[in-house]
Amino acid sequence: QKEEARRVLEKNLGMSLVGVIGSAFKDWQAHYHEEAKVRSLMNRAEERMKSWQTKKKGESMVVIDRMSKDQNMAFLAQMFMVWYLTKEFYRALGNYEDEKQIFVAYINKQKQRSRSALERVLRGQETSMGQMA
Questions:
Q1: Tell me, what DSSP letter sits at residue 133?
Q2: Which of 52, 50, 32, 29 is nearest to 40 (CA)?
Q3: Stretch 112-118: mean pLDDT, rounded?
Q4: In this predicted model, what pLDDT tens digit does every residue of 3-33 receive, in sequence order?
Q5: Is the Cα torsion angle 103, 108, 113, 115 positive or negative in sign?
Q6: Which comes out higher in pLDDT, residue 88 or 35?
């Protein structure tokens, strides 16, 4: 009877042990699947975040490109304006130099005429003084 009780007890304990081991395995399996699911969700979230960041970076680059294009066009317009004004300045300066030379030549010509006229007047006075004396 003692042996029989012992066998029944061992049999029950063995079944309990199998049940405990089976329960532990099922718990571990559920934990493993849950971890795999969490990792999968995290990976998808990271991929979506990277995709979103790439999209935003692209959109930012479009805005920056547009701004730099506008800025480049403004710089180009300024460059042409400076070039045109410089060209006009040198053209006006060239005209000034040409006009200055013309005026200097005119003044020198007038001085020469004035000298000639003065010399004629002085010669005329000398001859008239000589005739008077």
A1: -
A2: 32
A3: 89
A4: 887 777 777 766 666 677 778 888 999 999 9
A5: positive
A6: 35
Q: Using CA of residue 71, residue 76, residue 78, residue 79, what is the dihedral sign?
A: positive
Q: Provide the mean pLDDT of the chain.
A: 84
Cα 81 versus chain centre, distance: 22
Angle at 117 between CA 115 and CA 119, to 5 degrees: 65
Looking at per-residue pLDDT, the higher value among 33 and 90 belongs to: 33
Is residue 1 within a helix (H) or strand (E), and if so which, with residue range? none
Q: What DSSP letter does each residue of 52-71 carry, written as one string? A: HHHHHHHHHHHHHHHHHHHH
Structure tokens at 100: 């200055």
**Residue bearing the bigger pLDDT, 124 or 73:** 73
Element (H, E) at 21: helix 2-132
Dihedral of the CA atoms 89, 91, 92, 97 (nearest 10)? 120
Residue 42 is encoded by which pair of tokens? 């995290």
75-96 in b/e form (b: 16+ CB < 10 A) is eeeeeeeeeeeeeeeeeeeeee
